[in-house]
Amino acid sequence: MGRKIADCQDFPSESGCTLTISGEEDEVVNAATQHAVSVHGHEDAAEVRDWLRENLKDEVASI
Ligand SMILES: [Zn+2]
Hints:
By secondary structure, this protein is an alpha+beta fold. The protein has one domain (4-58). The protein has 2 helices and 3 strands; from the N terminus they run E-E-H-H-E. It has a 3-stranded antiparallel beta sheet with strand order 2-1-3, covered by helices on one side. The chain is globular. The two termini are 12 Å apart. Residues 8, 13, 17, 19, 35, 39-40 line the site of zinc ion (ZN).
């Protein structure tokens, strides 16, 4: 319940990254921030975390 998804395909990048990260909101924001830093060369900054948090999607539960 209430899991969130960060889908790298939704984010602008030159690498064509297709990673998706799902989990609780804080977990996804932390993991996606680390991924953005290590893979996409972003800084671990509050703006990056806020931006990621705003762009999370709700996981669609399979019934
Ligand atoms: Zn990526």
